[in-house]
Amino acid sequence: MRLSFRLILSLIFAVTIVSVLFALYQVQADRRARRNDLEKRAQLMAESLQETVQPLVAKGANGNLQRLVERFGHRERMEGVAIYDPQGHPVFKTSTLSARLGSELPALNKTVFQGNGWGEFFKAGQSKMHLFAVPLHIGDSTTWALAVFHDASYIDTQNSKIWRDTFKNVLVQMLLISTITLLIVRWTMERPVKRLAQWLHDLRAGSTEPHPELPAGDVFKPLTLEVTHLADSLKLARASAEEEARLRETANSLWTAERLRVYQQATLEESRLFVVSNREPYEHVFRGGQLETVVPASGLVTAMEPILRACDGTWIAHGAGEADHETVDEHDRLRVPPEEPQYTLRRVWLTREEEERYYYGFANEGIWPLCHIAHTRPVFRVEDWEAYQEVNAKFARAVLEEVEGEDHPIVLVQDYHFGLLPKLIKEQRPDVRVAIFWHIPWPNPEAFGICPWQRELLEGLLGADLIGFHIQSHCNNFLETIDRTLESRIEWERFAVSRGGHDTIVRPFPISVDFKEPPAFHSNGSGASEVLRQERYRIQRQLGIQADYLGIGVDRLDYTKGIPERFRGVERFLDRYPSYVGRFTFVQVGAPSRTHIGRYQDLIREVEGEADRINRRFESKHWKPIVFLKRHHNHHEIEPFYRVADLCLVTSLHDGMNLVAKEYVATRDDEGGALILSLFTGASRELQDALIVNPYDTEQLAEAIHYALDMDSRQRRERMRRMRRVVRQHNIYRWAANLIGAVSEIRVEPSPAERPQGVKCQPA
Description:
Layout: H1 2-59, H2 62-71, E1 78-84, E2 90-93, H3 95-101, H4 110-113, E3 118-124, E4 127-138, E5 141-151, H5 153-203, H6 221-248, H7 257-268, E6 273-277, E7 283-287, E8 290-294, H8 299-311, E9 314-318, E10 333-336, E11 343-348, H9 352-371, H10 382-403, E12 410-414, H11 421-428, E13 433-437, H12 445-448, H13 454-461, E14 466-469, H14 472-485, E15 489-491, E16 496-499, E17 502-508, H15 526-543, E18 549-556, H16 563-576, E19 584-591, H17 598-618, E20 626-630, H18 635-644, E21 647-650, H19 659-667, E22 674-678, E23 691-693, H20 698-710, H21 713-729, H22 732-744
Parallel strand pairs: 6-9, 6-12, 9-11, 12-13, 13-14, 14-17, 18-19, 18-21, 19-20, 21-22, 22-23
Antiparallel strand pairs: 1-2, 1-5, 3-4, 4-5, 7-8, 10-11, 15-16, 16-17
């Protein structure tokens, strides 16, 4: 009963507040409307009389004027009319006005005698009145005035009626709400509670851990009792599930987020995982005055976020969104993803100049072309190098703040933006396990020797306990570079570098994607084919084309991706096989990237120019060979294109891995489609059932497109099935487990709290 009483009071209070606010709004709106209507009627009446009165005043027809003003008393709420002389004294007035207003009528504003109309509301005793006055033009000057008086008390009367009706309605509503609420509580609440208790009783063997906040009361006793039993049962069930996951670790089973979480807990014990990257997984921007969350298009985000979700770690990144400052707490942190927070994002702020020189300058005009053999000359400037050093130091301070108080944390640094960061961290916290994963290729020693600060970069990298690359050849190139540049001892048997008493392990870790298992009800039969057919029709209608075959390419607009070479391969294919003209369309989704850099601006113009040139050669009314979509995208937007495309073209001129190839394979749960893959990608080492091509060889590329479209359906399914098996078994969670496992095996100095006083520890 106490709960019912509180519920009834709450509802009555809420309804009363809403009704009063609504009535207040209605009264104010009605008042404004009636006042406006009265003012308009008064002005209209005054202006109408003005034309009649002016000639009479000019003639001095006093008798006619008095009869005129007497005629307009008590007409449509009019109280009367008055005519004022140039001194502002009422000379003629309706006789009833004196009884209502007294012997002295209100004085008129001086602006009336200067040629302007004027009106006001005023009080006359206990009621309200309104007057509106207009000038009377006598000759060339204004010397008289006409005033019209209206009774305005009806406005307040109507407002009072609205308030009375509102309170009557509120009273009736309160009585009805009280009665209905009491019936609902008495008749329907006990039954759902009993059903919920039974559901909780059945759920005790499940894996969900609730955290209920139950109110006191006799009616909730069964629920309280079952929730207590459920908590005990869930503890036992969870322990059993974790034990089963640990047993599965020794078998060749699929790696999942849950298995990675259990593995991480068992391997790292109390150590926490911290990821550092330039790009953040979530940006906040203003669109139409509203705050929105944006997921940047990035292979790094695709690869790293599942790891942070599984491990509840911390991602430290540059806050580049225009509204990023609006969403963080006082420590520049926030929990993400927004819809279901599972890990922490720490943002680091950079000035525009720092970003320009460190990111666009040294990192992307220097290191990026240096490491990619794509025939673009690297540019190195002293001011860019200085900014690179400053930003690495700024990130080092942020990392040290985040790991403060943590015992043996693991810091996983991402990519070429932070070549100096491992050493900066290790100098302050030798007990931190530091790994850096270099997502781009590592060139041969001769090519890397172009960099004026190669020694500083290499020394910074060797501060890490573990350096990871995508493939073995990149590891070999790195060790050869170290061997030619720095004085150190290289142990080729275990791929390690020993320098200054510190060991750095160098290993390949081929990165992958989050492989989603198809639903249990998924079928490759006619039902699934019909769904794909409808999806293909929707996409073609959206693009404004009609084609029998579709190809897809998804890339950042970067000169290493070989997009112009790809377009020329499509052109050559249509030249050699004209039967596909009007039937095959290639869709290129390109996300603009690093547009501050001149080389990237040139690339965009080149890609657009090639697409336009080829389309002019072949296009017809409802078809064109190339559809170029220059826009940012996320995986959910691209997935339908992957599913319906007959082939995917990945023609990178040089790439560390290329996750687009693996995303395409992972998406094709129908086991259809064909992958044409550049031999200069790391993915070509794993996906050997793809059609491997040299992107510089236009003839070979054209032949590969024809072979993919003309391939026997059985062979196509077998190739895709084998590639899907590779991606499934070597998914992102396995990559993370291998990386975490390698880091956990590294011996480091004890933390400051663990060191015996007076004893200096040497690196292991």
